[in-house]
Design goal:
By secondary structure, this protein is mainly beta. The chain has a single domain, classed as Hexapeptide repeat proteins (UDP N-Acetylglucosamine Acyltransferase, domain 1, 3 Solenoid). Helices cover 0% and strands 34% of the residues.
Amino acid sequence: MAQSHGTGVIERHELAACGEGVVFEPGALVFHPENVEIGADVYIGHYAILKGYYRNKICIGDGAWIGQQAYLHGAGGLTIGRRVGIGPGVRIITSTHSLPEDPRVPIMEGALNLAEVVIEDGCDLGVGTVVLPGVRIGAGVQVGAGAVVSRDLPAGAVCAGVPARVLRYR
């Protein structure tokens, strides 16, 4: 029989850190809570998943807002600054599989590449945004709904699109 990575049910005392005033809505899940640090006054919406990993950390700064059905992946390391808004359905990914040289080998058997994602203070990621591994989003960046962030974004930028590009500055 296959073994699960756990239920994801939140036990605050199992988290690496959990500040005062943190709200976990029903259905929110946390995996590998020993590698998840949550600051004060953080909101985690219904059915959000904080997918910690056996190494590296998910660190969420004070006053962050994590929307419903968001998926935060921590294998490569994930840092979310203070007062960051993560819209409903946002996906933040910190790993990829390398393509095996032999095309007959399934991609899932390729090496796992981990790359940290950093989202600096005061950002807002619109509904359904996807952030890919290794990206740094500068302070105060606004990312439009449905954007795919595949490279670093400079502080103060307003971005949108697939791939996300800078439209203007705040």
